[in-house]
Specification:
There is one protein chain. The radius of gyration is 12 Å and the shape is globular. It starts with 8 loop residues before the first strand and ends with a helix. Helix 1 links the parallel strand 1 (9-16) and strand 2 (46-50). With 89 residues, it is an alpha+beta fold. It has helices at residues 24-40, 77-88; strands at 9-16, 46-50, 57-62, 67-71.
């Protein structure tokens, strides 16, 4: 997966549960894509936050502290990728 991060986007945070069914697609996305994304964007902060029982969500922080978030509940790994791409635009 090629994903260029930067520009107005300053930080990406992914919140997920380590065990819940709702976070399964997020866990799969991280397992399959995180290393490649970090290789392409070595200095960009991508934060993975695990908490038991939490609903999965991705947060994007932009210039001047503006933030947007998108729920990732019950999404497949491909749908998680699409949700992140929408926030990167």
């Amino acid at each position: 997966m090629a994903l260029r991060l930067g520009g107005a986007l300053k930080e990406l945070r992914i919140h997920l549960c380590q065990t819940s069914k709702q976070s399964e697609g997020v866990r799969e996305f991280i397992k399959n894509n995180y290393v490649n994304i970090k290789k392409e964007n070595p200095n960009f902060p991508i934060l993975i936050r695990e908490c038991s029982g939490i609903q999965p969500r991705v947060w994007a922080r932009y210039e001047r502290g503006a933030e947007k978030s998108t729920p990732l509940t019950n999404l497949s790994a491909n749908d998680v990728q699409s949700a992140i791409k929408q926030l990167v635009k």
